[in-house]
Design brief:
Oligomer: single chain
Order of helices and strands: HHHEEHHEE
Radius of gyration: 23 Å
Number of helices: 5
Helix content: 40-55%
Largest sheet: 4 strands, mixed
Distance between the termini: 59 Å
Shape: globular
Length: 125
């Protein structure tokens, strides 16, 4: 009887281990583009013509970083301009979500000065 109980416990423990190994890996935008280089390249086209722009992926965030070399460009100038682009950036986030099946994708726009210090940023969903 005791032996049967021990065998049952071992089988249950083994089954739990196997089931936990089969758990589906959470797919994020970052893992998606890393697993699909051609998709990453097509997204990088958004900044390809601007040598002062780059794209990074972190979790479900696509971060577009713009380096501003003109010291007269300030937060007060950039914030209203980003607000005017809200529909565009939100549309990109929605298109990415529907195209990949990944929920919660965000587009983060970051403006930095020539030294890399953040001027302003905004996140769009």
């Amino acid at each position: 009887m005791k032996r049967k109980l021990v065998i049952t416990i071992v089988i249950i423990a083994l089954a739990m281990t196997l089931l936990s190994g089969c758990a589906k890996k959470e797919v994020t935008l970052e893992s998606f583009v890393n697993d699909n280089p051609s998709e990453k390249e097509s997204l990088e086209v958004l900044t390809a013509e601007d040598p002062n722009a780059s794209i990074e992926f972190e979790g479900n965030v696509m971060r577009i970083i713009y380096k501003v070399e003109d010291s007269t460009v300030t937060k007060e100038i950039l914030d209203p301009a980003m607000e005017m682009m809200r529909d565009t950036f939100s549309g990109i986030a929605k298109d990415l979500a529907s195209g990949t099946g990944i929920e919660g994708i965000q587009i983060e726009i970051v403006y930095q000065d020539a030294s890399g210090k953040e001027i302003t940023k905004r996140t769009f969903e």
